[in-house]
Automatic annotation (TrEMBL), chains A, B:
Any one annotated GO CC term: membrane
Species this chain originates from: Edaphobacter dinghuensis
Protein name: Amino acid permease
Subcellular location: Membrane
Protein topology in the membrane: Multi-pass membrane protein
InterPro entries documented for this protein: AA/rel_permease1, APC_K+_Transporter
Alphabetical keyword list: Membrane, Transmembrane, Transmembrane helix
GO MF annotation terms: transmembrane transporter activity
Domain of life: Bacteria
Amino acid sequence: MSFVDSLLGRPLATSEERAEHIGVAAGIPIFGLDALTSAAYGPEAAMTLLIPLGLAGVHYIVPIITAILILLGIVFFSYRQTIAAYPSGGGSYTVASENLGDGPGLLAAAALMIDYILTAAVGVSAGVEALTSADSKLLPHTLLLCLIVLTVIVIVNLRGVKDTGAAFIAPTFLFVGTLLTLVGVGVFHVITSGGHPVPVLAPPPALPATVKFLGIWLLMKAFSSGCAAMTGVEAVSNGVMAFGEPRSKKAQATLTVIIGILAVLLFGIAYLSRAYHITAMEPDASHYQSVLSILTSAVFGRGWFYYVTMASVFTALALSANTAFADFPRLARAIAAHDYLPHVFLLRGRRLLFSHGVYALTGFTTVILILFDGQTDRLIPLYAIGAFLAFTLSQAGMVVHWKNAEGGYKKHWWHMFVNGFGALATGLTTIVVLIAKFVAGAWVTALLVPVLILIMLGVKRHYTRVKREMKDMTPLNLVNLEPPIVVIPMARWDRITEKAMRFGLLLSKEIKVVHIHSDNEGDEGLEGIWDDKVLTPIRQEGLQEPELVTIPSNFRFVITPLMDYILELEDRNPGRKVAVLLPEMVVRHWWENALHGQRVQLLKLLLLLKGNQRIVVVNIPWYL
Amino acid sequence: MSFVDSLLGRPLATSEERAEHIGVAAGIPIFGLDALTSAAYGPEAAMTLLIPLGLAGVHYIVPIITAILILLGIVFFSYRQTIAAYPSGGGSYTVASENLGDGPGLLAAAALMIDYILTAAVGVSAGVEALTSADSKLLPHTLLLCLIVLTVIVIVNLRGVKDTGAAFIAPTFLFVGTLLTLVGVGVFHVITSGGHPVPVLAPPPALPATVKFLGIWLLMKAFSSGCAAMTGVEAVSNGVMAFGEPRSKKAQATLTVIIGILAVLLFGIAYLSRAYHITAMEPDASHYQSVLSILTSAVFGRGWFYYVTMASVFTALALSANTAFADFPRLARAIAAHDYLPHVFLLRGRRLLFSHGVYALTGFTTVILILFDGQTDRLIPLYAIGAFLAFTLSQAGMVVHWKNAEGGYKKHWWHMFVNGFGALATGLTTIVVLIAKFVAGAWVTALLVPVLILIMLGVKRHYTRVKREMKDMTPLNLVNLEPPIVVIPMARWDRITEKAMRFGLLLSKEIKVVHIHSDNEGDEGLEGIWDDKVLTPIRQEGLQEPELVTIPSNFRFVITPLMDYILELEDRNPGRKVAVLLPEMVVRHWWENALHGQRVQLLKLLLLLKGNQRIVVVNIPWYL
């Protein structure tokens, strides 16, 4: 226990919940890392699609990022309102299911679950990829490195929300600090040089242009790819409950800081790329460098600052998976509370978090990492679709929320307008992303969403049936309290079967001792000792005599004739309970189990599977 | 069931045992394949060690094989006597333990078990190696091929002794037929050519000699290696029970035929090798051919007969593993009957054989094949040591047997002499083999034997203790038949807990309903409904009131406080039984298990592990 305690922290009492609540400073690494790190790959994703334009492409990046920033602004104001309206956690699932109904709620739930699982897998593998591209000797160990990073994140998360925030504060602030410095110094150079800065290290020349101008299709694709920069914005609204009071205010402040920094970074990177004439490189080029790497080299050269920046990007990317770990368990809990997922997701673990959600996410992420051998970078475009679907549903839900709120649309027209505009913008974006990325893999998401919804509906159906069958508000029924018929399988007369007989006599007057007699070598049956050992003492006490049932078994089977007898007995005595007493040896060492047949275990299992409400199994343990 | 029936045959009733008995013709493939196929590698094993002598080596092979044949003759006569004296199976284990005591018995048992496991693994891999050396495309699939051959042998064996004999008769007789033809035709050529036969295909030239004459060490090593040809001779004496009456006669006849053929083959191959000036090739030479391949080419050329002979050798080698499958289960049964191995080895399966022995041997063989990646040919020398140790102990035991037999050594002096001489000869050989092969791997056997003996002693100790504790020849004790204290864990009031309450009231008047109350969200406890639903109807019936025990759980644990309560209750009530009633949901589909906590299973396990004789678990199933 001591090892577990020091690894995961001592158990927290339910009353200690308040102490686990976090503030803005811890909220940024916990819920913001996913959003912030998208600054590292969002602009590059858009710029990669501009490569065919050659050097002319640099002129398009600022407008595209500006469009994305406008969308980001809309989403930001929408979620600010949502947080205020849902102080106990306003994730897309909650908002959509409460305002739009179960169907849209499940759609949001499925989209978000896929989004979070992919976020975790992609975050880990992107971080490791950055590491392996720095030292190609590590390349063969990609999968192992991924699993190590995952393990670290899981352990930190299992220590609870507060410890997670504390652990990730430093890398997050280093990442934000270096990138803000890069943008600040870069912009300063641009301004002082009159718009024509001299790069310290010249960026690689742009590839020759293969197209002349930006077509609408290419524009759509570049915009869609750039939208990857917006994933993770949902996180804060889902986790409002993690903040201390005043909850909504702190959550809103956290969201504001995150979006603000993200906007500065995105615009700064786009602006500097144009000023320094930086184009993206083909990802499979021999001397591939990321846009961030080229940009940092251009502004600072390859000094210590370059390496600190790159290291902070690697670390932040690897840890960005943490956002998924912070939110997935809360999402799963919300869904399970509506009976759409197994109820284990409702249980709070030793550190007060919904540990089973962490386990489930770890399992799914591990499976994906192993399936793709740690090469999940191709999945990056896929998860934007889930995020945008959730955005749209959440904001459409908010429109209905305001309409039904006290005062109606007259009082809340402005709120309705903001959320409605947000829903429209993100809805259109969802369609654009789906079309632009369908062949590249969005079809996987489009396929997984209905599958997940079907599973959740099946779970709900099961729980509904169980509740209906189990619910009993009538008082205890004491009619017909008849003792059961007791069945004791007996191979020989020894102390453990004697114990079973004694217990059987307590239970009922009607006892059947069943002996399976196979004409195997040296098996004499029980008749020889029955009168002497059993009947005589029972007659002396004046108790009712148990019946000895000997069943011959020509084929040396034991379980089958026993099962047949019990089922037939139950059939012949309708309304009576049958209690099967199974003596069970409990050995001192696990290996000793191999020295005793496992027939009792098998019989127990079969009685459970083939039995019915009227058959009860009683284990009589015998400690060796 | 139908598929199993057609694969493994219908179940056989115990009364059908006689029909499963075999005759001499079936006995040869079942018990003789291992011995007979050693003709294929025994002479070669000796000749490989003569390579340093160059062409001069051919002169030594006949004397060495003659020495081995003399030893074989001694062993043959010894085992003939053993079979007559032990008509119910006279394996080394039985003979040694009955006459020399438990210690030597266990030594023989351990040696033989290792021998059989290695026989199975080496047989399979030698057969596959012959196949892969014919077509090197198959080489990467060695392990897979080994496992396929093993599967076939296991399935055939699981069909029972009779079917196994029938299946293996054809390949055995083909092997014996082709090799006898080879020897016969070869000897005819030698005689008609006046001792200087002209090979159809000249054997590859002998390597240049590196030593001048045969030193004692080299002679010992060549002799030891050639002794591999004697493994498998034990098999018949172990399996006497498989034969029909007159059992001993049929077993003796089978042994005679097997040894007779083996002697002819061994001597024939040695004689022809000298006549045709055939030397062994280094096994890792580029165009490596086995001695048998060179010999057949020399006598017949590379026509159809060559290929038939080679194919029959491959098949017989692969199937030689079958001898282990015929004998290991009988050996394990004999050891288990003395409580030195788990009792499952005593059970006869659906086809009347000791199936668990087959399973165990299959398991060990698979592990060895996987560990060595199917390259077990280096293990060939190892298993001769086990076989010779068993020979020695068996015959030493027979000496004692005759001495103690009616009439004593005056009447049986000839039997004693034969067995005594056999014991001496094989004992010396054991020492020679152990020394000559110690570094090459016999040390593994020397290490495994004591480990196995320790395991068997541990098993015996366990069974002795259990028998002592369990044995109860006193009649049923009806004193102090007091009803148990019933404990019912209850999370909420529903139909399944109501069922548990009803059953509890049948068991005892003293009922404790335990409710673990964690101050988790929305948990109101049972107090609210307790009076209304439970106490009122019980008071109406005038029954004793159950006690509601509410235990707070600050850390949301459920199992721990429950276990603590039960153990404390048991502690406070010495002499009383505690019956814990555990309601258990039985779902319709396996996946539905994921939707219900597995707390009940965990609690059951813990009660079994931490509980004691006085705690009884009652499963109350509820079928959904």
